[in-house]
């Protein structure tokens, strides 16, 4: 950090640390014990859409990497684009296969990063649901290397902010929680959060 950065209160951005994703299985145990939230087996990676042959090839490689699990009975990864123009890759596993799901999400992020598309990566989400039917997404912000919970109210584009704060406090020992609440963006329409 330079003198002017210190003078104006700027800090260097945190480097992405994809290995933070591997903290999700232990966070899931904490969540289950304290709140009853369980993994759904769904996880997704969001990235800004980029046109061009190189990016299309990388998307094909990523899908082939994850689709390889279909030979063992897995479901192929699903690609989609949301109403805001962002691209998503959704991976599915059995709920008890959370470590495998996390490995898939790590592989997608790593593949895109290794091929020079790190700047297009936005976030990864692992979905949970509690016995009351409430949904929770643990959102990993790629560019910040941090997590935050997004708790969506059933059937609405509204969030349960008190529950989000409760969960963030609960998981502080398991995950690097984003301290700047203004970065806790809603991810409406994220594949896997509603089902």
Overview of this structure, please?
There is one protein chain. This protein has 195 residues and is α+β, with helices and mostly antiparallel strands. The chain has one domain. 32% of the residues lie in helices and 25% in strands. The chain is built from five helices and six strands. Helix 3 runs antiparallel to helix 4 (98-117).
| Estimated structural class | alpha+beta
Backbone shape: globular
Instruction: Summarize the helix and strand pattern as letters.
Output: HHEHEEHEEEH
Domain count, please report it: 1
How much of the sequence lies in strands comes to 15-25%
Look at the structure and give the mean pLDDT.
84
Q: Low-confidence parts, pLDDT < 50 over ≥5 residues?
A: none
Pfam families: PspAB (PF22742)
Brief digest:
InterPro entries: PspAB-like (IPR054383). The chain has helices at residues 3-7, 24-35, 53-67, 98-117, 161-170, and strands spanning 38-48, 75-81, 86-92, 121-129, 135-141, 146-152.
Which descriptors apply to this entry?
195 residues, alpha+beta, 6-stranded antiparallel beta sheet, 6 strands
